[in-house]
Design a protein that fits this description.
By secondary structure, this protein is mostly helical. The protein is built from twelve helices and no strands.
Length: 234
Amino acid sequence: MESGSGARRWFPESPRWLACRGREEDALRLQRRIATTNGGRLPPFAPRVMRTVAKAQRDRKGFLSLFSSWNVFKNTVLLIAVRSAHVLTQFSLLLLAGGVGVKPFLTLVAQGAVQLPSVYAVHICAARFGRRWTGVGCALLAGVTCAAAFCMLRAGIIGLPITVMAVITQIFTTGTIAMANLQSVEVHPKCLRQIAACVEWTAAAIIMSALPYVALMPSLSTLQESISNEVAQL
């Protein structure tokens, strides 16, 4: 018991978690301790807030609430499509980096280095030009650069040019998922945000299982064809 009390003292539960479990008194006691540690006092409306939090937990929505409204369902499906396209594109670029780029390590570092600036630039554009046009623009530019990279590969252009194109594609792909994350927070009701995000990423992860067939099977087919030709010549 003493060890349990010591653990609770050093690693206390979240007041919100306690309130959601119906332990409002424990939540208030913990909040008073936090306020004392910070040199303040607990405001008088704190008990009312704890009751509101507990009630919100009782009214919590479930998975089936995603189907309760056409708009919620439509937004969830669209975000699943965006996230799925993102994971397929991003990891296809990473898998192909070693076979068509200048150097595998340099290609991966370059693709990773542009992700943070891309997210920052997208948030600036979203605040200035709006979510819709920023999201559509990133998706269209990502599609154009993907098509250009595909045409370059079909033409046998590899090395530095395809590395640069992969980095540019990664910029717009990262911008697309950054906008999807932002829109997922804004378009879903607050009580459904966590559930919707879990469903979206789970569906995207299932679709990502097709990645080896999308990214590697054409290369394997080409390799098998070249081996067959060499065997036939022998």
